[in-house]
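The records we work with from here on pair a chain with its fold. These numbers are not coordinates but entries in a learned vocabulary of local backbone shapes. To see the layout at work, look at the sequence and tokens printed below:
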Amino acid sequence: MNAIDDKLNLLSDLIRKATAAGADGADAVFMGGRSLSLTRRLGRPEWLDRSESADVGLRVFMGKRQAIASSSDLSTDALEELVGRVLTMARSVPEDPYCGLAGPDLLATDRPDLDICDPAEPAAETLVERAARAEDGVFDVIAGEDAVAEIAAMIGAGRTAGIGSPRASLETNTALQLLVGSESFCNGLSSTEAKLSDLALGIYRARAARIPSLAEVEAADAVLVLGEDVLNTAPRIALALRQSVRNIAMEMATQAGIPQWQDAGVRGHAQDANGEGGVSILLSRHARGLFRMSSMCVDGTGRRA
């Protein structure tokens, strides 16, 4: 008896147990896998890992109800528990008029060779040899000074492009743009995002609107938010808004001799003194997460909170 016969016997036994326990029909599937992987770094093997897995799945039918469950534990007790669990599930699910096992006339009678299974398993030594051949001449270890010189030569020849990121700092993006040149630099923004950024930058440069810094927002006595969901679009500004409404509470705590790092004491003292903090007015249909910290909120329906 080979390994395939063992697995078929296991599945047949599982189906017999399910039908004996009350299932009108059942089918089962076995899934197994083996993997061997090698990591090579800087000319040397770094990590060799081997893993094996085995799972069985059982589907049962009770009238027009069906349920499916699986287990990676192939012990006798675990498989009996699997049968009981899937039968309990089948009894509690709603009926499905289309569920059921395929009839004998619908089952495949032959299995074409799809050539999708390679039974050969390479040895660890074979993987080490293949990885060495793949890395040979591709990754050459050179000194740091030589690497800088080689990169500088590539940039000088115009063979390098720089892709920035909106998540990176302004200094990092600017340094990258200066390094590769404006013609070879992409800011990492979509065309729509880039236009909005240029518009905001133009407004800021023209001083057509007063644009406070984050520090100024945190120190403001009153804040008015119009129709913006800053929790999602500008979380750092949302944090500054939360800080701004606590300024009065901080001042009251300092006058009472309460250290500002004692958050619970600061909040409790402000509530006892009937002071919630600074003033913030929120006019938005989105940012409900900021409603609790605002002095007055008006949502999209015109209701005040």
